[in-house]
Design goal:
By secondary structure, this protein is an alpha+beta fold. It has ten helices and six strands. It has helices at about 55, 60-65, 95-105, 115-130, 130-145, 150-160, 165-175, 180-185, 190-200, 210-220, and strands spanning about 5, 10, 20, 40-45, 45-50, 85. The strands form two sheets. It has a four-stranded mixed sheet with strand order 1-5-4-6. Strands 2-3 form a two-stranded antiparallel sheet. The longest helix is centred in the middle third of the chain and has 14 residues, at about 130-145. The radius of gyration is 22 Å and the shape is elongated.
Length: about 220
């Protein structure tokens, strides 16, 4: 399971293959501690993280790096040569913490208590690094958790989930109360025009599926 490590004086535990830090900083480790299998070490800006090799190899991105003789360097991922993501990648230590918490989930465990924004950070890394099952799990969790149509559009734009956009716009078209200034700003000009055009149809009662059809046609 994943561990967040201090950049100060980390060392390998002899014969165990796991990563140890000094006692003062050990309380900062998040998630459960794997003392059995070898770890792959990541450096995100100034923070070090250790992930079990078996979990890392679930990633198409890292599997190619660590196992292919033609891609990357199979020696990468130890304390001397961690897999590094600096400021240019846009990845923060906080993003990695959220990703590790979700990666640690087991079938019998409850999901970690993260905000939708934190789940979105984990999704972005799972998608970027080709953890396909984890990516799909996070997306299903967000799909159940984010109900407000304006938030769904915001997350859809952030994460590239186009399938959420038209159903969310259709919900906005169908509702009875008018849009306020803040909501109009969230939609942006182009979407606001489409929504207002469809809301003019409200002289008659329509199902959300009708609005979805009309909105999809307007995209063509």
């Amino acid at each position: 399971m994943s561990q967040a490590l201090s950049p100060r004086s980390p060392e390998l535990a002899p014969g165990k293959g796991s990563v140890i830090i000094d006692e003062v900083l050990e309380e900062k480790i998040r998630g459960t501690t794997n003392r059995i299998e070898p770890m792959i070490i990541f450096k995100v800006r100034d923070a070090l993280f250790g992930l079990p090799r078996s979990q890392v190899l679930l990633s198409g991105f890292f599997r190619g790096m660590l196992e292919s003789p033609h891609l990357g360097d199979s020696r990468e991922g130890n304390l001397e040569k961690p897999i590094t993501f600096d400021e240019r990648t846009g990845i923060t230590p906080e993003d990695m913490e959220y990703f590790c918490k979700v990666l640690d989930i087991r079938a019998f465990q409850q999901p970690p208590k993260l905000s939708p924004e934190q789940w979105a950070s984990a999704y972005r890394l799972a998608k970027m690094w080709e953890f396909e099952q984890l990516r799909d799990y996070i997306l299903k969790f967000l799909d159940r958790s984010v109900k407000d149509p304006f938030e769904r559009i915001e997350f859809a734009d952030m994460l590239g989930v186009e399938a959420w956009i038209i159903p969310a716009l259709a919900q906005i078209c169908q509702r009875s109360n008018a849009l306020n200034v803040e909501e109009a700003a969230k939609l942006g000009y182009a979407r606001l025009v489409k929504v207002c055009k469809q809301r003019e149809r409200r002289r008659s009662a329509y199902e959300i599926s009708d609005y979805e059809t009309w909105l999809a046609e307007s995209e063509e």
